Amino acid sequence: MANAEDYPRVSEARALLRAGRSSAAVRLIDESFPTAGDATERTWFLLLRLAGILNLEHTAEYAGTVDRAAAAARDLGDPGVLGYFHALTAQVAMTDGSLERAVTHLVRSGRFLTEVDKPDITVASAWHNLAVGYSNIGFHDQAADAAGRAREVAATIDRDWRLSLPEVQVRFGLYLDHRGDTDGCVRILRALMSDADHAPRRADGLPDVVDMNLPWFGYTITRLAALDAGDNRDPRPYLYAAGGDAELADLRAYGEVCRAIAAGDSEAALDRLQRIDSATYNPQLSKIGPGESSRLRALAHLVAGDHAAAYAAERAAFQLTAQGLDRLQTLFVDGVAARLDHEDLRMTVARYADEALTDPLTGLPNRRHLQQYVEAMAERGENGVLGVLDIDGFKAVNTVHGHLSGDTVLQRAAGALVRIMRRRDFVARYGGDEFVLILPSATMEKTDEIGERITSALAAEDWASLVPGTPLSASIGWAELNGMDDRQAGKPRLASAFEIADRAMYEAKSQARAEEDDGLAA
């Protein structure tokens, strides 16, 4: 694998990230990138920059950084680097609110990492990131498996990573508590602290782990105390041991809530929770579980003796946790549908096996194949209808979510079109977000009905879970594809029909936009 430790400035940036000093790491990367020695160093700079802005929650920079890192990792072609990239990009997808994209990236990450022949410390780090990604979305079994792989790889190079992923255990323990299994939570958190107690110590008396992990041990101490299951140790040296990354700031804020609960000060605990929740807070994106704020509110109300309020907060915690399970059910059903679309697409592609005639992104026939298909129709004396379909809102997807997400949209659209169209129809990707549909033997009288069926089916796709906040639809224009077209202004048959259909598509797009504006005005 292209080892990050072979580059001193990359190693320095990694050390800053591990110390919770992501701002300093990003500054170093931005200063060093222009003088990077080769493609490998540039790729690692981009990957670590992505890790840094994730820690800092600089969401406006996500899409651009993901696109640059994707291109660099793809060009390098190293499976370990690609695994590292997809593990990080899954966290971007979760921030976007797309569980489907997140899981897709995590699965790809694991597949790439299993291809690595000679693991090193950066492969261990990639498995580490994969474990964190699975843990963040509540896939605790998969997180534990990836964490185990990280420790195994680290052990092969004489690194002791037994305490390298406390957050995975903490999140699992909290998940159990949110579901009502407080005893299970206490067992897991106590086991984590027992491991920490038996670890080698630093000069300051804390466990000899990287600084960014210490606040997780600190939160474990405070959370056990809030459950009246702790000891008398002071959590503050742990909570405040690392830098000021956003994730660590959240842990400290919740840690102070737990300290107030343990001290019997329900008023202070509820006041702190109110401040946390009012800071543009989305429970589903919480790094310590969607139900944690409500669960702590329940504990604070119990301290105050307000059992009715505690019960209501407890119900809210359970409801937020259950919402995650509902999303998984939807993801499972959508995943089966997507797999069926992929199988249909694969069978379609099998009919057009020549790679020179196939679009590599979607697997559909490409422009060259389209030309050959239309020429073959002309030789047979066969008429039909040609449609040009454009995805409305696609540019916003690339801008907001990045080109990698845009590629996923195109792949989903291709699969949906294959599912929607008749077996004898021909679907090609023309370029960008434009697709061409050939309907042999069809007439223009049927195009309104066919177009409505296609646009309705595409609109029914769950784009919101794939690229949240960027609605997508489709516009279609139609033209006759017959023997007369090749005599219009001397243009080839396909070019003439495409020009007419393309113009009709833009007219349909403009009409839809005008109707939308009229609706808003009304």
From TrEMBL:
SUPFAM superfamilies: Nucleotide cyclase, TPR-like
Membrane-traversing stretches: none
GO cellular component, one term: plasma membrane
Molecular function per GO: diguanylate cyclase activity
Any single GO BP term: cell adhesion involved in single-species biofilm formation
InterPro entries found in the cross-reference section: Diguanylate_Cyclase, GGDEF_dom, Nucleotide_cyclase, Rev_trsase/Diguanyl_cyclase, TPR-like_helical_dom_sf
Coiled-coil ranges per UniProt: none
Pfam family, one: GGDEF
Segments forming domain GGDEF: 382-522
Domain of life: Bacteria
Name the record gives this protein: Diguanylate cyclase (GGDEF)-like protein
